[in-house]
Amino acid sequence: MRFNPKARLDARRTSDAGRGAGGRSAGRSGGIPVPGGLAGGGVGGLLVVLVIVGLSMVLGGGDSPTAYDTGRMADTDRYASCETGDDANRSADCARVAVENSLYDYWSSTLPEQSATAFTPERSLRTFSGAVSTGCGSASADVGPFYCPVDQTIYLDRTFFADVLQDRLAGPSGAFVEPYVLAHEYGHHVQNLLGTMGRVRTQQGARSDAVRLELQADCYAGMWAGSATGTQDAQGAVLISDLTRQDVEQAIAAATAVGDDRIQSSSGGQVDPDSWTHGSARQRVEWFTRGYREGTLDACDTFAPGAL
Ligand SMILES: [Zn+2]
To answer: What is the whole-number distance in angstroms between the Cα of residue 32 and the centre of ligand 1?
Structure first.
């Protein structure tokens, strides 16, 4: 994946909370409410794609801006120097900003084109290490990347990709893994805007609404990947100059590495379909690929009868 060196980056929606108190071992105590009984043991730490379903059902997508006090969101200015695609080609931090810009551009046009829902951007793509305070409660790095519908923010532990995905899960080390995960979390933001989160009634089992929600976020990630080279900066310059077949295969490999069945196996447990909340590796690859090929919200209707 290469960025157009001349593209202008907009870092206004990307922030960094720095290193939060508590660290990895103590961070769980705050307790993000985790659906589906995922809080037990260390398993929660392996979930790449956590979504706070319960809170979103209560608060819906149109929560008031006062629901979360942005004044408390201190920022380390980590992304202040990310100005161009050239910066993104040199720095993983700036690549994160560029991918966010691409997701923003894609969904700001695609959502109004394909639905009656107006697009509003996420509040922030917020990175942290150790622990972080969020609109959904405090979180430690153990929970992995997640989207909080209350403050409409994607949270990403900066050490996650090195520590968890590669070491513990033996996942791929490719440069497109993080973009895939960001695109998945952005898919949850789109679901929040569409009101899809409110449709989740069942939390556990291979055909549960929670699994459908996760597979749909993978499908939305595929939609973006299929059109990523068409996305532009605010001046109309191409953002992503090159996205190869190999990049897409890395994303698919990442989906394979983070399927619930793989997560359960590598954490020492038996594979147990009744507790799946993210779908199997095969399902995740299928839905990502479907979104990539079809490019429509309709093709990503995992809630349709017979879809799973
Ligand atoms: Zn997810």
So the answer is: 15
